[in-house]
What we know:
Helix content is 30%, strand content 28%. With 366 residues, the chain is an alpha+beta fold. It has 9 helices and 22 strands. Helix 4 (125-150) packs parallel to helix 6. The chain folds into 2 domains: 46-151 and 243-352, Ribosomal Protein S5, domain 2 (2-Layer Sandwich); 156-242, PDZ domain (Pdz3 Domain, Roll). The radius of gyration is 27 Å and the shape is globular.
Amino acid sequence: MTQPTHFDLPAPPTKSKRDPRFIVMVMSGFLALLLGAAAVLLPAPYVVESPGPTFNTIGEIDSQPLIEVQGRQTFPASGDLDLTTVYVTGGPGTQLGILEVFRAWVNPTESVVPRELRYPPDVTQEDIQEQNAVAMTSSQESAIAAALAHLDIEFQEELSVAGLVEDAAATGILEEGDIIASVDGTEVTNIGVLRDSLNAANGEAVDIGLVRDGGEVSEEVTPKASPSGDFQLGVGLVANFTFPFDITIALDNVGGPSAGSMFALGIIDLLTEGELTGGKHFAGTGTIDSAGQVGPIGGIRQKLAGAREAGAEVFLAPAANCGEVVGHVPDGLQVVRVGTLDDAVDAVTTLGAGDDGTALPTCEAD
Length: 366
C-alpha cells in the first residue's frame, strides 16, 4: 500500500527559547514546498504546440502507399514531399501544470497559447476529433481537385450553401442547400470561378443562378468586402466532387486541413512522368482549395523545426504565414514562399532539377 508522503524536519534547538533564525528557516522551507507543489499541481489555462512527425506523401506508411491511385497510370517517385504536423497538449479534457508551461516558454521550438484562443469554451475532445476528421477529408478532396486541375484532367465540382455567417450579404436571399450554378451568367465550375466572378463585380450586385429544391432560380445579391479585400456572399460552402478515377489517401490519427498543398504535390508527382523532386527532401504545409489557392495554417514555427529535424532541405511556406516564418527558420533549411499550387510545383521542379533557386520567392522581414 502506498504510504503518504512526509517530510523530515530538523529537530528544534534544545534551549528553551528557539532561535528566530531557525523559525525563519522552517517557514522558508514550508513556503518553498508549497510553491513547488503549486507549480507542479495547479493547472494552467494554456496549450502547448510542439513539432510533430512528418509524413512523405509520395512514400509509404505502415508498408502501404500514403497516396494510392486506381484507374490511372502512375509513375515512380523518389525523394520526399513531407507534410508536417504539430502536437497540441493541454486541450479540452486535459490540464497542463505550470512547470510544463514554463518549460515550453523557454523552448524555442514550442509555443504557449492561451487555451481560449485555440478552442471555444464548451468544446470537447470528441468535438475536436470530429472537426479535424471532417477538415482532413475536405482537405484531401480539395487537394485531389487542385492536382487534377493543374494537370488539366477534367472533373466535376458542385458548390452548395452549408450555412450563412452573421450579417452575411446573402442573408434572407440564399438558403441552405442551394447549389450555386452561375454568377452573372458565368458557370461556376469551381470555387476559383466564384471568387473571380464576385471580385470582378467590384461590390456591385450580381445575379446568382441557383438550383433550389430541384428547380432553377435566380437571386440578386450585393457582395460585401472582406478584411482581405475579396468580395464575398458570406456563406459557408460545401464542395461535392466527381472524379474520373479513384485516389485514396491513407493517413490515420492526423486531422485538420493544413496538409492540402502537400497532398496535391504528391498526387501531381505520382501522375506525372519523371521525378518531380529529383530525389531531394522537401517539406511544407498549407491549406488548398480546388482552384489551387494555398492558405495559411497554424503552428508554422513548429512545422519548420519538425521539417528540419526530419532532414528536409526546402520548406514550402504559405505566403500568408510569412510574418511568423521570419526569424524562425532553422539552419540549413531553405524557405520558399508559395501562394498557389503552381508556385509550389514551380519551386519543386526548379530545385529538383538542380537549377539555381535563389530567384525563388522567400519570406522576408518587412
